Amino acid sequence: MADCDFIIQPCKPAEAEQLAALVFQSEPILLSYLFGGEEQCLSFLRYACARADGQFSASRHWGVSDANNHESDVLLGACTTWYSPMSDVFQYQTLEALKGFFDVKQLGHLLINREALDLCFTSPTKDQLCLGHLAIIPSARNLGLATSLIAFAKRKAQKMKKLALVLDVEKGNTAALNCYLNAGFNVVKENHFLPTEQCFLRLELPIQA
């Protein structure tokens, strides 16, 4: 795989199972807590990734694949981006995915944690593009794929005339943190999500016009 060329393109609903695994990999502790444990979380993500729109929809993600192997349908990595405000369709489909999968008890759990989530993961400003769910499968790490996805998001931010690219990373995820710092991001804030006793860093990369 070291000699491969890679291509970044929109994810497809048919890739929902692979994408769900990557999204889960991006923050397993928090997602497991929010969505009822690892098994139920992965089931929900597969369901949500296959939907037409919403926070976890394949249509909102970009995947990395091997450009030289046209017979391979393996996602090597993925990421998403969002901004403020997202469309009404996005918001509606995100809520519909939750209501269509979880029972009242689990929805109540999410509602109870909403304020803590909003305080920890602040929405990007109108001048920012937020990068999220970035993950690379283990066998494809250290090949520059994460760097390529960051560069892709940066170009997208430039086209949208944003002034900065932002993201949140768990402080203890040193591999991811070092990758972002090496890409030019700076730590601008430290936030704590008390229910899981996690510390997340908000990072920012200024965008030049």
TrEMBL record:
Protein name: GNAT family N-acetyltransferase
GO molecular function, one term: acyltransferase activity, transferring groups other than amino-acyl groups
Superkingdom of this protein's organism: Bacteria
Membrane-spanning parts: none
InterPro entries for the chain: Acyl_CoA_acyltransferase, GNAT_dom
UniProt domain N-acetyltransferase: residue ranges: 69-208
Pfam families: Acetyltransf_1
